[in-house]
What we know:
This protein is α+β, with helices and mostly antiparallel strands. It has three domains: 23-34 and 211-295, no CATH class; 42-209, no CATH class; 309-433, Glutaredoxin (3-Layer(aba) Sandwich). The chain is 20% helix and 32% strand. It has nine helices and 24 strands. The chain has helices at residues 2-18, 81-90, 96-106, 168-172, 245-248, 339-352, 371-381, 396-399, 424-433, and strands at 23-27, 29-32, 42-44, 70-78, 123-130, 136-140, 157-159, 175-184, 187-200, 205-209, 212-218, 221-227, 238-242, 259-260, 264-267, 270-278, 283-288, 309-311, 318-320, 328-334, 360-366, 387-389, 407-411, 417-420. Strands 2-11-12-13-14 form a five-stranded antiparallel beta sheet, with no helix packed on it. Strands 3, 7, 8, 9 and 10 form a five-stranded mixed beta sheet that branches. Helix 7 (371-381) links the parallel strand 21 and strand 22 (387-389). The longest helix has 17 residues, at 2-18.
Amino acid sequence: xxxxxxxxxxxxxxxxxxxxxxxxxxxxxxxxxxxxxxxxxxxxxxxxxxxxxxxxxxxxxxxxxxxxxxxxxxxxxxxxxxxxxxxxxxxxxxxxxxxxxxxxxxxxxxxxxxxxxxxxxxxxxxxxxxxxxxxxxxxxxxxxxxxxxxxxxxxxxxxxxxxxxxxxxxxxxxxxxxxxxxxxxxxxxxxxxxxxxxxxxxxxxxxxxxxxxxxxxxxxxxxxxxxxxxxxxxxxxxxxxxxxxxxxxxxxxxxxxxxxxxxxxxxxxxxxxxxxxxxxxxxxxxxxxxxxxxxxxxxxxxxxxxxxxxxxxxxxxxxxxxxxxxxxxxxxxxxxxxxxxxxxxxxxxxxxxxxxxxxxxxxxxxxxxxxxxxxxxxxxxxxxxxxxxxxxxxxxxxxxxxxxxxxxxxxxxxxxxxxxxxxxxxxxxxxxxxxxxx
Length: 438
């Protein structure tokens, strides 16, 4: 009896060891530079002069700002905004109400297993000011000791505000290697990353990025991973692309080839879900998917659009994506506080007046906006297509993973996404191509 039981246990263990793992973990190697990714920039601002806001107790206290500067201000650049918020909440520098507000507005569920209760150096201090000639200068606390006296001030690279494509050479021209702390194997370690700061001419605007990416090998494919806009060395919100010969040779990846976290990628005719990079273990995570592609829902081109339902502000009726089957649907996520969204409304209205609404329907999903303000915008611009407010009950904004406005999706009559982020001339060209005009 004991021998039979022992044999059964052994066989069970063998079967478990042979069973495919749900999550595939791939070691990653970091590289300086943008690699196959387009360079994006995030704005950086000095701390407010009269700082009485929710962040006031999170500000870094520094010394050593050059005494010869005028209009000197200090600020910080985050290497991991989630860790910064979490440790300041633990320390009592952020109130529970504001902490909850950030979770709700960021659609963030804190992963406390990969966050440190002990404070980490996850902010890079900087200071700006004018030198004796009136030129804008910047100094960065590269070794993260909160003292600028051992750092070198410099004039940030100037960029034309009208520039559309930022060359790698411009960003790498003045890179500062900065130190910060992060968790690796549940231990606090010091890491380094390149930081670039540029000055947009005549706009009094400083912007930055961390030109950094990572690679991993899977089967016969090489995967490159970075973050959107290259603005996060923690790789918290990462994006991947499969490297082909052209990308390895220096070409930039087309935006529709990028795969964001929790989206799907086809590798050797099998579908995997991309789960990002675990910086604690320094691995890229993929999950093998058994569901056929035609049955999967995603915000990616070629996949089924997520079903949703909400109240049409104009007719007061319930509206669902399912009810629009048989039509093309132009899904537009926007906010009354989004300048580009508002500026585009007259152009959207002009195009809408020229389309056959029996073939295509606009649906505006309005986010982070009071209903009264939405209706004022609607009246001003004579919006006559359905508008739905995204709120926690219908969860549409979170469902579609919206991180910025405007964000748009063009959905075909069968409910599949065929294009993303079409605006202006691109949208007009697509409408013409599909013969959707009156």
